[in-house]
Amino acid sequence: MKKKWLIVGTVVAAGVVGAGxxxxxxxxxxxxxxxxxxxxxxxxxxxxxxxxxxCLFCHRAAPLSPLAGLPTLADCLDCHRFIAPEAPEIKKLxxxxxxxxxxxxxxxxxxxxxxxFSHQMHLHAGVACNACHDDVAGMERVTRSASLKMGxCLDCHRxxxxxxxxxxxxx
Length: 171
Prior knowledge:
Elements: H1 2-26, H2 44-50, H3 55-58, H4 73-80, H5 88-98, H6 119-124, H7 130-133, H8 150-159, H9 166-169
């Protein structure tokens, strides 16, 4: 009798795990907060919006590589040694520099390992940053606006008459 209940319990547990995995894989790829808190309160609204700093000034790698990249601490301090050096967030920035420690930014966008995406290719095709990232220049804190699910990407590729060959994005 105990053996029967052990088998039934195992089958039920396996069913629960299977249903849980099914639910997990039906959710968006990136389960993190759509607008995570960062170690420094960096305002795109101030930098890109009010001050008109172009995306590529800080994300310099985007036209040259698959990744957009982030500015170095030295890049930030080139301006902030003179602009608002006494502001609390700039003091935090300076503290990272003094400790020779990278800022542990929290990713807002990410893709699974089996997907290849190149900022370089999209920029060279004339795709504007806000096509995927929305109005970052109006955001105090960056919010993920694109789902980055395959259907979302395919819809854009179809609208732009870009390739929908599987091997373009899947490696």
